[in-house]
Amino acid sequence: MEEPEPAGPAQPGLRSLLPPRELLRSRKGQLLLAESVLSFIIFICYIASLAASFMMAPLLEFLLALFLFFAYASKLNEKFKGLYWPLTDFLRCVTAAIIYFAISIAAVSKYSDGASKAAGSVILPFYVFGFIATIVFAIDFYITFNDLVTFLKQGSSDPPEGRKSEDEDSDSDSD
To answer: Is the pTM of this model over 0.85?
Structure first.
């Protein structure tokens, strides 16, 4: 009688829909998850309040953060080399931080009465979530910016082989 094969990581099922643990444990994965959750909460709060005119920005940021989360989870960033993923993520974070800060200031100034708060006085007002999201996106773009700078310094200090041989040829011509 043959022994059944042990269940390996390639077993199909609901587990294949979950992101890998290394992404959830990484700083980038945690930031993307926090951005997605905060954007969704803000989107729901804006829909439930009088400030529904601001709902489009959190919806777009939620969808973009969710897309990048699953793109990193399924390693699309390694498969599609034509798109520079860190720069795309940096631009998304910068614009999200600016937009969340702007709509939070607008919500504070325009909807400061008690009736416009998302769920009454039981939870935080919706614009507080916007300021928290601004901080999370700012942390993310700061970290991404540092990664970009490190990458660009490495790229500029290591000349490609073709350019190196051209430089050597020009040095020998000048003698």
So the answer is: no
Of 91, 85, 82, 87, nearest to 71 by C-alpha is: 85
Residue 6 counted as domain residue: no
Are 79 and 125 contained in the same domain?
Answer: yes
pLDDT of residue 145 exceeding 80, the answer is yes
Which distant-in-sequence residues (6+ apart) come within 8 Å of 119 by Cβ? 45, 48
Tell me the residue type at 101.
F
Judgement on whether residues 29 and 74 belong to the same structural domain of the protein: no
For position 97, what pLDDT does the model report? Answer: 93
26 and 101 co-located in one domain: no
> Domain count of the chain?
2
Do 64 and 107 fall into the same domain? yes
Instruction: Count CB atoms within 10 A of the CB of residue 28.
Output: 17
Instruction: Give the residue, 12 or 95, on which the prediction is more confident.
Output: 95
How far is it, in rounded angstroms, from Cα 161 to Cα 169?
12
Q: 159: pLDDT confidence band, cut at 50, 70 and 90?
A: very low
